[in-house]
């Protein structure tokens, strides 16, 4: 029997407000533990929460950007559970009446277009953070830091529409891109500002009824999400093939062993004893405010991709990659403004730059090659100062050091050879060393010409002007 996975993702994204969702404490990252707290976010008796208007605005932006219906009426509720980093003993969230519903995100996976439905987007407060360790005497300890407590979150709940780990990864990347374009979340998974839990089950192909699902946690990168899903799908299929039943539970992804391990039985909504928060009035959003926010939306990834294809005449695949992050899209456009040949710029970004960044696991924001660096190098190549082969070496040096192309070329002595006499001398040596190939060419075997060009370029250490080499070599071969 063949099985198919059914996957739904719950994403928590920290909103980029300066203050917390229900108080005025700072949301700055990396401060001293427990330095950004007050009676409200630590749940002291008598303290009262007040909603952060900017957080609501950011959540509405996301709802509109993901094609959701914004609810005119939503309600905050108390989600009750007990954990050391939850000072109130409950989390303020939304339950029956979320802020946004019935949206979707479009994506393309392996050439196939897919639409992933969004069930809801709701607002809530973040919990604190636990730090575990040992004293010098090897005594275990656990500290709690409440700085993150009360930081505004949106929870984005997808429908059970995802059918593979690769689709899940692409959906998360697309969602993060939208958040970054809106400038409402950094999308940094390592810092926990963009976190994902996955619900996954398997069922026989053709069956409409869902199987028993498990929830996966502790995945802090797109790759971890994909690997955890791959493992869990395989595990569940093996359980069913052995005639056993999948247990509904929460499982953790163990990054050291690359396996999922059981954490606890899966909670249901009734376990949290949701009820409306008596300290917060219902959240009402009028049409006028929604339209004001809609008009202020920036150009979103899909719109930018279509514009790149139309305005810059680059292939859809290039446009898809170049708009995958706002920073990359801005980098491309800055380069084109300085060197107005979009396809040439795209080729260098898609090939050399992305290859180096992927190897070093770097983002474009941390790259030493600025648009001005790249434009200067491309102009030097266009003017004939350096050859295409030398440009590759200049780029690698530029990427490694951040030095300017002109400086690198001067220090390395990589200026292109335009002296016909010098090139002629190298051509003569190549022809003398390859009399059989010269004879083959003159008898009509055109293919050997490329090899001879390569030998001449090798003889000049890549410095000769390729166009000049081609012209002089053909002239010599014709006798």
What can be said about this structure in brief?
The protein is α+β, with helices and mostly antiparallel strands and 479 residues long. The chain has helices at residues 53-65, 165-182, 222-241, 287-295, 301-312, 316-322, 326-338, 342-360, 371-382, 388-401, 405-412, 420-433, 435-442, 448-459, 466-477; strands at residues 3-14, 69-70, 73-74, 76-80, 90-94, 100-109, 112-125, 129-134, 140-145, 152-158, 194-204, 214-219, 249-254, 259-265, 275-276, 283-284.
Structural features, described:
By secondary structure, the protein is an alpha+beta fold. The protein has 4 domains: 3-292, no CATH class; 299-354; 368-413, no CATH class; 420-477, Orthogonal Bundle (Arc Repressor Mutant, subunit A). It has helices at residues 53-65, 165-182, 222-241, 287-295, 301-312, 316-322, 326-338, 342-360, 371-382, 388-401, 405-412, 420-433, 435-442, 448-459, 466-477, and strands at residues 3-14, 69-70, 73-74, 76-80, 90-94, 100-109, 112-125, 129-134, 140-145, 152-158, 194-204, 214-219, 249-254, 259-265, 275-276, 283-284. A hairpin with a 2-residue loop joins β6 (100-109) and β7. α5 (301-312) crosses α6. The relative contact order is 0.09. The model has no long low-confidence stretch (mean pLDDT 91).
Poorly predicted tracts of residues: none
- Counting DSSP H or I runs of 4 or more residues, the number of helices is 15
Number of strands: 16
> What is the radius of gyration?
29 Å
Strand arrangement, major sheet: 2-6-7-10-1-11-12-13-14
Strand content: 15-25%
- Please tell me the total number of domains: 4
* N/C terminus separation: 72 Å
Largest sheet: 9 strands, mixed
């Amino acid at each position: 029997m063949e099985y198919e996975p059914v996957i739904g993702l719950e994403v928590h994204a920290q909103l980029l407000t300066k203050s917390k969702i229900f108080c005025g404490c700072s949301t700055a990252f990396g401060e001293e533990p427990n330095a950004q707290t007050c009676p409200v976010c630590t749940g002291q008796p008598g303290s009262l929460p007040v909603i952060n208007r900017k957080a609501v605005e950011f959540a509405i932006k996301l709802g509109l950007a993901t094609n959701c219906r914004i609810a005119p009426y939503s309600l905050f509720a108390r989600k009750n559970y007990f954990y050391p980093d939850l000072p109130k003993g409950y989390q303020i969230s939304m339950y029956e009446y979320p802020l946004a519903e019935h949206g979707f995100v479009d994506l393309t996976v392996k050439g196939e277009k897919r639409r992933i439905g969004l069930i809801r987007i709701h607002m809530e407060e973040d919990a604190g953070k636990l730090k575990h360790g040992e004293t010098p005497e090897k005594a275990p300890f656990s500290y709690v830091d409440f700085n993150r407590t009360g930081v505004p979150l949106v929870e984005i709940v997808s429908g059970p529409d995802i059918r593979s780990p690769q689709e899940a990864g692409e959906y998360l990347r697309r969602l993060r891109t939208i958040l970054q374009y809106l400038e409402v979340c950094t999308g940094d998974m390592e810092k926990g500002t963009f976190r994902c839990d996955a619900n996954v089950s398997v069922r026989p192909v053709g069956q409409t009824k869902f199987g028993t699902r498990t929830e996966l946690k502790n995945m802090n990168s797109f790759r971890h999400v994909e690997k955890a899903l791959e493992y869990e799908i395989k595990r569940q299929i093996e359980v069913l093939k052995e005639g056993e039943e999948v247990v509904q539970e929460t499982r953790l992804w163990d990054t050291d062993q690359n396996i999922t391990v059981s954490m606890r039985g899966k909670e249901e909504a009734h376990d949290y004893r949701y009820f409306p928060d008596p300290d917060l009035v219902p959240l009402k959003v009028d049409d006028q405010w929604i339209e004001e926010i809609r008009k202020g939306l920036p150009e979103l990834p899909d719109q930018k991709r279509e514009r790149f294809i139309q305005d810059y005449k680059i292939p859809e695949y290039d446009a898809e990659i170049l708009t995958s992050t706002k920073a990359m899209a801005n980098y491309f456009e800055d380069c084109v403004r300085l060197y107005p040949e979009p396809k040439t710029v795209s080729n260098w970004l898609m090939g050399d730059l992305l290859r180096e960044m992927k190897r070093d696991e770097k983002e474009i924001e941390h790259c030493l090659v600025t648009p001005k660096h790249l434009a200067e190098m491309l102009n030097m190549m266009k003017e004939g100062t350096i050859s295409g082969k030398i440009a590759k070496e200049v780029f690698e040096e530029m990427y490694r050091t951040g030095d300017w192309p002109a400086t690198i070329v001067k220090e390395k002595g990589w200026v292109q050879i335009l002296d016909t006499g010098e090139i002629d001398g190298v051509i003569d040596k190549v022809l003398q060393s390859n009399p059989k190939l010269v004879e083959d060419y003159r008898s009509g075997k055109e293919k050997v010409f490329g090899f001879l060009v390569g030998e001449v370029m090798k003889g000049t250490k890549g410095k000769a002007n390729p166009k000049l080499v081609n012209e002089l070599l053909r002239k010599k071969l014709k006798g």
